[in-house]
Amino acid sequence: MNAVNAPEPLPSAEALLRAAPPHALVATARRLLAERVGAQEVTLLLADYGLTVLQPVTHLPHTDAPVPTDEGPAGSAFVTQRPVVEVLDEPSGHLVHLPITVRGDRLGVLSVRLPAQTVAPGTVLQLGDFATALGHEVSTAGRDTDLYLQARRTRRLTLAAEMQWQLLPGRGCSRREYIIGAHLEPAYAIGGDNFDWSTSADHLTLTVTDGMGQGIDASLLTSLTVSALRNARRAGIGLADQAALADQAVFSQYGGKAYASTLLLHFDLDTGVVHAVDAGSPQLFRQRGGHPERIELDAQLPLGMFEETLYEEQTFHVEPGDRLVVVSSGVHGTRSAAGDLFGERVLRQVLGATRSAEPHEAARAVVAGLIEHYGSKDLLSDAAVVCLDWNGRR
């Protein structure tokens, strides 16, 4: 057979999604899935900022009704991170709900309606790969279009919250050695709380920052602090010096009138040794063998409180199976209407009850427990929770 006359292979779905205009990813997905698996309907649902609903991505301002994240087949796919097949009445076929996750960051769900006879394990697996490819393109398209960021909103963000969400790396990250899940409230009005991470071949750096104040003032302070920490980290210097340089940057701007409490953690992926600098109020808990305990670190001065503060590192160790939970002062320092502190006792109860849950759901459960304790979703202080499950290198 003459190789010149051989038909060219069909372009991969990933290549065709990459070639699509940023705003046209859903339309491209519909066309590809109709051609390749006979899809009759394709819907992209993105999780809102509060992780309460999944919002269909359509031409704004028109949109379909949101779907709760904690009920129904689509919500089950999002929470369990497994495909869910919903059997519809004939001749409607079946709906396949596929979680969309990019490197551990849960974005939403892709719902595909197929003829009943075409739903097979191989097809569901193929659709799962397609959903992952679509998720990567949605993440990248956010640089060039507002469509997907707008679709995540059930209402308008405050300006401070807009700034904070743009500063965050995501709400999750996973590798073989660890899984991170994080949550922030009030999601649509967050001001000064932030979490950040960076991974390399052999290390993970994780920070949780709580900038003092509220609204724009807190957001500007936290933005400066996180940017200074990133700048120092990317210069390749040690953890204590990262804190010292960020401290200088904040003090030079505010002269000690505003400061940011920060917990810095640096993990060695080979050994499980963790270097830590506790510069303020975030608290750290470890669950080992089902028993939550607080890791007591030497409390050092918040970043920017005084000029040229020197910081010292401490170390502790994590083992495979450990869970670390970091909470900001808006969690451990919140009081109920009766004046009862959420505090360590209640937090331990919530952590114990959620030990079997995935990190994302555990972080969300801590915030849900906080809201229940406070008696309202309108929290007076920002609340940040970061949950890390450590697997290590076995």
From TrEMBL:
Q: Which InterPro entries match?
A: Bact_Sigma-Reg, GAF-like_dom_sf, PPM-type-like_dom_sf, PPM-type_phosphatase-like_dom
- Give the domain of life: Bacteria
What residue stretch is flagged as signal peptide? Answer: none
Record's keyword terms, sorted:
Hydrolase
The PPM-type phosphatase domain sits at: 175-390
| SMART domains according to UniProt | PP2C_SIG (SM00331)
Q: What is this protein called?
A: PP2C family protein-serine/threonine phosphatase
Annotated source species: Streptomyces gilvifuscus
